[in-house]
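Mods, move this if it's the wrong board.
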Amino acid sequence: MMNFFKDERGQGMVEYGLIIGLIAIIVIAVFVALGPQIKDMFSNAVSDEKTDENKAALSMAIFR
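Not the wrong board. C-alpha cells:
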C-alpha cells in the first residue's frame, strides 16, 4: 500500500490538469466580468453599420 502512495508516475499530468483548470476559471471570470462591455462594443459596431447603410440609402434616394 505504501508503494502506491510513493509512486509519482502521472504527477506531471495532474499538475498540467490543475494549471489548465485554473486558466479556464480565470478565462470564465474575465468573460463574466467583461461580458456586458464586450456586448455593448459589438452592439455599437452593428448599430454604426446600420446607420451607415441608412445614410447610403438616403443619399441614393436623394440623387435619383
